[in-house]
Give the backbone structure.
Amino acid sequence: MNTSIESIELALKPLRAELNSHKLYSNLASVKDIKTFMEQHVFAVWDFMSLLKALQNHLTNTSVPWIPVKHPSTARFINEIVLGEESDINELGEPNSHFEMYLDAMHQIGASTTDIEKFIIQIEKGISVSEAMTALNLPKATRDFVDFSFKIIATNASHKIASAFTFGREDVIPDMFFQIIKQSEQNNKASYSKLTYYLERHIELDGDEHGPLSLKMVEELCGNDQTKWNDVLETAKDALKYRIALWDGISTLILSNTVLA
């Protein structure tokens, strides 16, 4: 592995440790808490797709006439992720994006999809992401998280987008969800099969193969350009800081809902 990747991962350790030990996880104690979490996290599920599609535009040839790409292995990696994220197979054997699977899981668990559905309608009408976010009465941390993603996309710098994509996503939530869902299904005799399927599929696709390939993508995009490596580290740190801030915001929501209850 490139020493630059190793140095970046070393530099990110404190932020990753802060994220992985976040108070949010201990505050996720019930299905009600998961609903609150999902109602905000769904915006991160959505903007992940925009980061991915931005990478597809940069690293594969989506224009006509076609010409070969510079890094075929990276192009294959991106196309594989697009296939899995944008047109995967749901638990019924039907083609569906992971975003739509997440919405289905929200419906089944009883979480509100009103805000995200209003948001998508605005986007379909051609309203900018920033304006559509402002129109919703969302916590600042949720708005800031999405705004950061689109700020990175707007740079048109593929190495920065790849950094936010590679280093800025969570990996501990599924374990927490599984524990709560299993307990709740036993206690309430309810089924949350759609959320379980989404989480299991998420783990399967983001497993051993995608992690190393995403690091290789960053290596290929940066090469020996130290300025790009510096950009990658700065972007990765910012992405994790915004993720931590999002977790702070959701944790506050959960605690406030508990007090109100």
